[in-house]
Amino acid sequence: MTVTDVLEDTHRALMIACDTLENQAAEIRDLYNRLEEEANRLAQELADMRLIVAQRDNLWDTLEEVLDRCKDQYDVDDGDDGRPLPNEYMRIGNIIEDALGMSGRYK
User: Fold this and answer.
1) Secondary structure of the chain as H, E, C letters
2) What's the structural domain count of the chain?
3) 66 backbone dihedrals φ, ψ, rounded to 5°
4) Cβ 60 vs Cβ 103: under 8 Å
5) What is the tens place of the pLDDT at every residue in 37-68?
6) Exposed e or buried b per residue across 48-60, where buried means at least 16 C-beta atoms within 10 angstroms of its C-beta
7) pTM (two decimals)
8) Residue 70: which of 47, 95, 33, 51 has the closest Cα?
């Protein structure tokens, strides 16, 4: 085997190695792009969830305000059989208390 043969074999081996490295680099770039897309999707999902939580908290605050106003109007009405029944404000207040209780915000 001549020096030229050795150089040609080395050149071929280096070319194969370069092709392999280029293919691996392309795979890594593709994986990186997919990971970046997934990270962006998750970041958007997190932002959406934070918005939902903020809206939920605003809803609970509003319900608590309505509940306070209803409590000021709590009374009973006479039922058909003469027994007292909660008035409309009390019924609405009870519904709100149940909803707030299920949320863990009101006990």
Assistant:
1) CCHHHHHHHHHHHHHHHHHHHHHHHHHHHHHHHHHHHHHHHHHHHHHHHHHHHHHHHHHHHHHHHHHHHHHHCCCEEECCCCCEEECHHHHHHHHHHHHHHHHCCCC
2) 1
3) -60, -40
4) yes
5) 999 999 999 999 999 999 999 999 999 999 99
6) eeeeeeeeeeeeb
7) 0.57
8) 95
